[in-house]
Amino acid sequence: MSTVFIALQANEETRPIIEAIELDNPQAVVNREPAMVKINAPGRLVIRKDTIEEQLGRSYDLQELQINLITLSGNVDEDEDTLTLTWNE
Amino acid sequence: MDMKTANKKLSLKDKYKLFTRDLGWEPTYRTKEEVFPYVQYEGIKIHDWDKWEDPFRLTMDSYWKYQAEKERKFYAIIDAHAQNNGHLHITDARYLSALKVFLQAISPGEYAAHKGFARVGREFPGVGTQVACQMQAIDEIRHAQTQIHALSNYNKFYNGFHGFAEHRDRIWYTSVARSFFDDAMAAGPFEFMIAIGFSFEYVLTNLLFVPFMSGAAYNGDMATVTFGFSAQSDEARHMTLGLECIKFMLEQDPDNLPIVQAWIDKWFWRGIRVLSLVSTMMDYMLPKRVMSWREAWNIYGIENGSALFKDLARYGIRAPKGWDHAEEAIDHMSHQLMLGLYQWKFGTSFHVWIPSDEDMDWLSKKYPTTFDKYYRPRWEHIKKHEAATGAPFNNFGLPKLCQCCQLPTLFTEPGDPTLICHRESVYQGERYHFCSDGCKDIFDNEPEKYIQAWLPMPGLMQDPLNGDLAGWMDWVFLKNGEDNGDYATSQDKHNFELWRSMASSNQ
Q1: Which residues pair with residue A71 across a beta bridge?
Q2: For residue range A13-66, what is the model confidence (pLDDT) as tens digits?
């Protein structure tokens, strides 16, 4: 199965976001590189607003991800609650 | 009486609809064909522009909010970099060569992309597409500006940063990137989207920015990490726009498939040639290397590219025609081009050097099947030659340039890394030269376009320079003995070491 990924800047804002992504995607592999964290997952990755808010302790607009995004791979679909990345095979 | 209030907050999907499609209108004074005159001639058939949607559903109000936040973060760090002698925190001054290549060849490409997206944003009839292209046009000019601004701090101290605008127009290696963007801008709006939005942004940009920015982080360059990440935070949106556009074209009409496939073939190959500059940076110019060009290709080329083309196979798309050739060339291209840059170092506005023994050992570990066999002996030969003659190893013979990608024809035949690859075509009695089958095919498909290409090397031989190298250097804004030549004897090396020692002592 093809890998989807998302890479975020490594900083204080993204630490709880990365924890939330790990919670929602047990199959995901987190690679910590200098200044950047790249999260790979087989076929599909889901990022949920609710889980981020729990980790962050405040309300969160999923579009705030734009600020710390480095790159991603896969077909994107975003609404207020989730952002998903998928490859169709 | 109780008034029923509407939902206070619009859903993202509703908001996106209101802020894109609801802003469009049907023209009445003029026909649609008159308002959008360029969307027919490429042969792409679109039946319903409303089917195109930005999957991030980003609207202009949110766009400004987040972009402002990115700018605030960027300038806070750029100020700190300037205030804290950030230029002395890099590993050593060899690193600056990578920055110079970036500023001279890549940043002007950002500006070109800005112009291109501003244009196609006007030329496409769909409102969703117009809005996304408008955002990308603003992003690209922001990238050009932030890069120039960040690197201006280095220009205060080091050579080779001062003439990037003139280098972009006149020097030879920059014309590789310049001709790529000029070619895209001189194409129709759909081809431009495949060229920049899809091939460059989706297939290749990761290979440029991610290793480059990690490279900056590894080499202590806070300014570049910052402009890189600030730009890169927009790239995810650009990549997504590129992918959505290609899917949109393929879903709208089956007749679009062969046209789109031919563009993918063309722009993948053009992109690979531009990235050969990046390969030299990754394998040779970073004092502290992140990963080899080969390793970056494995992650972002093979793994990610294969996933992408497997996904697009449902539309009938196959991997680009030059894919297998590129895969074989990956183990050679950085070495072949770097050996070229070293020989022509009198004509580069950055410094080069013979890799140290330690660096060569690293290269042979990263390229176990090619470096020791083909390239170490050539570096050793140059080293011996310089020791025997006491003079730098320069090649004043002018290289033959490829009429398409504008690189010297220095790459080798597929299957034989000891034989220079050369192709030619005759068009209207003139003979044109190419570095590869990929570049020749692109020319043969549109000769009228590429015979107009401005090639930097013939410029040196023409009136008024007539081969005068010193005159050429003046014209390209290259200061002989300062901007060019071997790193070992450069002012940059001398000054960096002097200033760094002053920063850590009280002498």
Answers
A1: A7
A2: 999 999 999 999 999 999 998 788 999 999 999 999 999 999 999 999 999 999
Tell me how far apart the alpha carbons of residues B400 and B395 are, in angstroms, rounded to a whole number: 13
What residues contact B167, with CB distance under 8 A and at least 6 apart?
A: B104, B174, B349, B476, B477, B478
Residues from chain A contacting residue B220 (CB–CB below 8 Å)? none
CATH architecture assignment, domain B33-331: Orthogonal Bundle (1.10)
Checking phi first, is residue B7 left (phi over 0); if not, alpha (psi -120 to 50) or beta? beta
Number of domains in chain A: 1
Min Cα separation A8/chain B (Å): 9
The residue of B14, B204, B206, B218 whose CB has the most chain A CBs within 10 angstroms, and thus the best one to mutate to test that interface, is B206
Taking an 8 Å cut-off on Cβ atoms, the answer to whether B236 and A77 are in contact is no
- Taking the C-alpha atoms of residue B13 and residue A79, their distance in angstroms, rounded to an integer, is 7
CB of A69 within 8 Å of any CB in chain B? yes
Tell me the pLDDT tens digit for each residue of B236-273.
889 888 899 999 999 999 999 999 999 999 999 999 99
Separation between Cα atoms, residue A25 and residue B305, nearest integer Å: 23
Range of the domain at A12: 3-86
Neighbouring-strand partners of residue A3: A42
How many inter-chain contacts (A to B, CB under 8 Å) are there? 94
Q: pTM of the predicted model, to two decimals?
A: 0.93
Q: Does B304 touch chain A (CB under 8 A)?
A: yes
ipTM exceeding 0.95? no
